[in-house]
Amino acid sequence: MKHPLPSRRSRATALLAACLALAPAAQAQQPPATDPPATPSALPASAQPPRQFRLSNGMTLIVQPDHRAPTAVQMLWVRVGSVDELDGTSGVAHVVEHMMFKGSALLKPGEFSRRVAALGGRENAFTTRDYTGYYQQIPVERLEEAMRLEADRFASNQWPDDEFRREIEVVKEERRMRTEDQPRALLGEQQNAAIFDASPYRRPVVGWMSDLSAMTPDDVRAFYRRWYVPANAAIVVAGDVDPQQVLALAERYYGGIPARAVPVRKPYTELPQRGIRRIEFKAPAEQAYVSLAFRVPQLQNLDEDSDAWALLVLAAVLDGYNGSRLDRALVRGPERVADSVGAGYGLYGRGPQVFSLVGVPAAGKTSEALEAALRAQVARIAQDGVSEAELARVKTQWVASETYKRDSVMAQARELGSQWVQGLPLDADARMLARLVAVTPAQVQAVAGRYFGDDQLTVATLRPQPMSQREPRSRSPFGPAGELR
């Protein structure tokens, strides 16, 4: 069971929605605007602040009470992803995620999913560059059983070699469906490999096909034993629960897992870029596609006066909502050069981040013309800036997104887990809020002029070839995409 891997653009947009419920204290820092944002409450009246605990073996527990419905979400977060892999074993973090459904000391292959379904729940898992996550949403009275099941497979995942040999073919088919059959996904892989020199972000999360073909069961077992240790994991529980009761259950089922040290992660240094980099990719496709990726600073500390805050606001001004600058100028403007456009910024991660501008050229327009038009929009902000009213409108839309997020216990659990992975505190939302609403037009204008030169840029261009050149593929022996873990 798999979610599509989150893109830089979707993650940045989701983060904006998650960070900005305009609290009254933060609003006082916002300059007046023509149409000021509405003033919502910071949280729904029924919400309580999250609580964080450390179990006796070093595992983290985070509990978010929300008593509006008799349901609960349990999420297991492991601070391990493709960034922790070694060359030659790309994709192994994702393969471990698959094999976590293939048996334990107590359960046979596939039995975990059957047990959760019998509890009236649903479950899934996901792997990214920075982390791996597993979740179950169940009726709250079934939470104890879900915790017992998750603790068992975290502590004692085991399976025969035959299960691996079958499942690695599923992973390879997943790569074919989501990457090799998708020209833009292949283009993105090549662009990432060109952007980064030292960072493990240069490898795809799903892995290179050659590495998947050469992977062994012992490669997977070794990665699981190395990284699936209590001090490298967090349990997040959100829903109609009492924190102290959840803590007692967590100690009962997770606290007895033997403590082990988290392996030391070796540092690396990304070399300075010296000049523009270009990727030209030919593939059967109906339309061209252009992706511009600029190396930019990432957020290192919530309390720093970082350019990261202004870059995040710049991304929202350019794209993220209807009526964005890119959409108005390049898609709906009188000199239409694009069928679609987008922008995004990662803000934070365990590796370096980039700022992306993407688009599909309109009929009769070249990729080069769209590339120039995208860069011109950033240059225009660098020269002329943005207005107070423009920022106010963006923040109003963030408020609406935040309101919807608070209606979902799943979204609350996912936010708390992703923040834990990055080492952020429980009050990260409020502190991000204070920084973001304090961003001024002058700061946005400054970053637009500082980080978008040739020495930060990697351009990837998809050059369409006739669809008749597409190579035929054999029919997959596996189920539909929704059945792939």
TrEMBL record:
Iron in keyword set: no
Cofactor(s) for this UniProt protein: Zn(2+)
Keywords: Signal
Residue stretches of biased makeup (Low complexity): 40-50
Residues annotated as signal peptide: 1-28
InterPro entries hit by this protein: Metalloenz_LuxS/M16 (IPR011249), MPP/UQCRC_Complex (IPR050361), Pept_M16_N (IPR011765), Pept_M16_Zn_BS (IPR001431), Peptidase_M16_C (IPR007863)
Residue span(s) of domain Peptidase M16 C-terminal: 215-397
A GO molecular-function annotation: metalloendopeptidase activity
Region (Disordered): 27-50, 463-485
Domain Peptidase M16 N-terminal per the UniProt entry, residue ranges: 64-205
PANTHER family: METALLOPROTEASE, MITOCHONDRIAL-PROCESSING PEPTIDASE SUBUNIT ALPHA
Protein name: Peptidase M16
Organism annotation: Pseudacidovorax intermedius
